[in-house]
Amino acid sequence: MPTIKKSVSGLVRSVVIGSIRAYLGFALRTTRWTFKIDPQAYPYLISHEGQTAVVAFWHEALPLAPALWWWAEPQNPKLDLRVLISRNRDGRMIADVVAPWRIWSIAGSSDTRGKSKGGAAAMRRMRASLQHGCLVAITPDGPRGPRRQTQQGAVALAQFAGKPVIPVGASCSAARLKSWDKMLFPLPFGRGSFVCGAPLWLKHPKKRQQQPEELAKSLQTQLNSVMEQAEATRLKATGSCLLKPLRIYPSRIWHSLGTVMAPALPFYLRWRQTKGKENSQRIREKMGFPSCRRPVGPLVWFHAASVGEVLSILPLVQACLTQKPTLKILITTSTVTAGAIVEQRFTHERIIHQFMPLDVPRWCQRFLDYWTPQAAVFTESELWPTVLGLCHARNLSVALVNGRMSATSYNQWRRLRGVARRMLERFAWVAPRTEEDSERFRALGVLTQLAPGDLKTAAPPLPVDDQVLVQLQQYLGDRPVFLAASTHVGEEEQVAQAASLARQTYPDLLTIIVPRHPERGEEIAARLQAAPRRALNALPTQQDAFWVCDTLGELGLFYRLATCVFIGNSLPGCHGGGHNPFEPARLGCAVATGPQVGNFTEAFQALQSCITVVQNDRVLATWVEQMLSSPTERIRMGQQAQKLATVNDALPHDLAAQILALVW
């Protein structure tokens, strides 16, 4: 019986809250508003360059506050607002009414006798909010009055945080309730006005420190003044405007499509499983179901879709763990191979790995409800409208590191400029890879950017099992080794032809082929006269010209074995785009690439003085012969590449500090 009563009570409460929100939203949106903002207050109200303030208004104007928020938020969509609302039942109902408009509450107050009701904790939270770039709104005469008499809390907060107070007056066509504060209850299709006065500093370093009673009286006078001005402005308002809340989801079409497609997507995931593209034991993670417990304490969520992104955030994750010993890290990936790399390389006890759910509203909501991260960090070009909208709705700080916006992606997003802007303006900041990426992000609507810098230039050298390395070095002896790393379909044949030409001069040359996708190893070996495969623990004999190394996480081993290295996905005839050249360069390898390096243009430009571009198999063969015949030149090029690839080692530590600033 108590359970039934509780359920009915909860249902009634939900209906009441929904009805109040619907009416209040309708009344405020149909009111024609006029805003009179003091020029000195304007940058604080939109948090320009991180400036924050305490926004103060009388309790009677509390129902009108969303309209001021709807005016401010579109001018700075990353703006956050927190309102001090009492812990009592009425206060909690108000908080639930305004929460879907991204007006977040801080619970706490003092009663009329000065007894604390969470006031001290609320004071600390408000100060932290102000320091982290949020606006904090308070009603100095709340929660129980006396009406239009400033209590000490507002003065104490401004002094404690060292922030100014913006006095706000509001008036509109409204009925006045018979409450202690004579609260304004807005009526639809009327007129309204807001007047925001100049910032009031209650703790001025160069002036005589006033007593709290004097400061409270000064604030009270200012608030009464702007309330009178608001009423006068409303009565003679002419050039007014209608307002509406900022849209939560960047793309309603994408959001709806995800909802409609959700019943069919589990079958799609099962089909991918049959192709080896999903982990059968963890496929439910793609639907937002967790496979392990959430650890206690602050949690930062990193998303890196594939292998390259995972490797790039390794030093960043390590820096975050070092700088904050209580921090836990959740890393999500999209591909099975990237997940395997996380399991191999991210072995810290405070790191958890999960697969990223598909961009379906219910699945992403389930994921966020369970993991409740304090901040989210996306990598490179991972832009998903639904999950970003849900983060926005939860007021979850989101950042983008190593931000990449290729010319192709930029042209595609330009056709969806509105969606792109609504997505990108959700980010607290974007850390682009290069100046070119920075310009494209800025053109699409990014509001705050850090200095460009490529995390892939700051990654530690790829790891290696020293025992295995020594064993293979002894096994191969003085035999020259040509490594073709991360090759793609259509490329192995050209590498094999180049190797055959080079063997005419160096008959004992061993060519190691490491396919980007290890599952292609059997097919490649069959085309190379049944070459031995690393996945089968087979070693090349002296008669074997090729060795197919179709394993994951061992590139660090093969780079150290190689005499010279070719980076795949770059020759004409394959998909093209190149791969990260910093990995072999960091280990002092002599490196060559094909001409198709569009995915890593800036990286190859940075290393252009020590990387050779080959146009076809014959030119590649000539380069291999040159490297083998001139060890002095080969060593010089490797050392130069290593020097250029290690100039940005401070970047992970700097970005880690920026990320941890988002964690409260």
From TrEMBL:
<protein>
    <recommendedName>
        <fullName>3-deoxy-D-manno-octulosonic acid transferase</fullName>
        <ecNumber>2.4.99.12</ecNumber>
    </recommendedName>
</protein>
<keyword id="KW-0808">Transferase</keyword>
<comment type="function">
    <text>Involved in lipopolysaccharide (LPS) biosynthesis. Catalyzes the transfer of 3-deoxy-D-manno-octulosonate (Kdo) residue(s) from CMP-Kdo to lipid IV(A), the tetraacyldisaccharide-1,4'-bisphosphate precursor of lipid A.</text>
</comment>
<dbReference type="GO" id="GO:0009245">
    <property type="term" value="P:lipid A biosynthetic process"/>
</dbReference>
<feature type="active site" description="Proton acceptor">
    <location>
        <position position="309"/>
    </location>
</feature>
<comment type="pathway">
    <text>Bacterial outer membrane biogenesis; LPS core biosynthesis.</text>
</comment>
<dbReference type="GO" id="GO:0005886">
    <property type="term" value="C:plasma membrane"/>
</dbReference>
<feature type="site" description="Transition state stabilizer">
    <location>
        <position position="380"/>
    </location>
</feature>
<dbReference type="InterPro" id="IPR039901">
    <property type="entry name" value="Kdotransferase"/>
</dbReference>
<dbReference type="InterPro" id="IPR007172">
    <property type="entry name" value="DUF374"/>
</dbReference>
<dbReference type="Pfam" id="PF04413">
    <property type="entry name" value="Glycos_transf_N"/>
</dbReference>
<dbReference type="InterPro" id="IPR038107">
    <property type="entry name" value="Glycos_transf_N_sf"/>
</dbReference>
<dbReference type="InterPro" id="IPR007507">
    <property type="entry name" value="Glycos_transf_N"/>
</dbReference>
<dbReference type="GO" id="GO:0043842">
    <property type="term" value="F:Kdo transferase activity"/>
</dbReference>
<dbReference type="Pfam" id="PF04028">
    <property type="entry name" value="DUF374"/>
</dbReference>
<feature type="domain" description="3-deoxy-D-manno-octulosonic-acid transferase N-terminal">
    <location>
        <begin position="281"/>
        <end position="456"/>
    </location>
</feature>
<feature type="site" description="Transition state stabilizer">
    <location>
        <position position="456"/>
    </location>
</feature>
<feature type="domain" description="DUF374">
    <location>
        <begin position="77"/>
        <end position="147"/>
    </location>
</feature>
<dbReference type="GO" id="GO:0009244">
    <property type="term" value="P:lipopolysaccharide core region biosynthetic process"/>
</dbReference>
